[in-house]
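Re-run with default settings, no changes from the original entry. Doing this only to confirm the output is reproducible before filing.
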Amino acid sequence: MHITFLGAAQMVTGSCFLLETGQTKFLVDCGLFQGSSEERDLNNRSFPFDPRELDFMLLTHAHIDHSGFIPKLCQMGFKGKII
């Protein structure tokens, strides 16, 4: 299994982790960055993966720093289930 930390690794907002196995690719959370202007600027970047390739997304809870980017994820082609 390969884990890529896409947020909340050096700060507490923007929780998003990409997990990949040989057969499955999924996200744990997809949150907005909050706080300083530098942190909020991270919200304008593109996803470093193709959302269309995700099998599903696991949402830990509905706070905006864990769920706020779900609309963008869907807009960019994610069609999987949100669990």
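The chain has three helices and five strands. The chain has one domain: 2-82.
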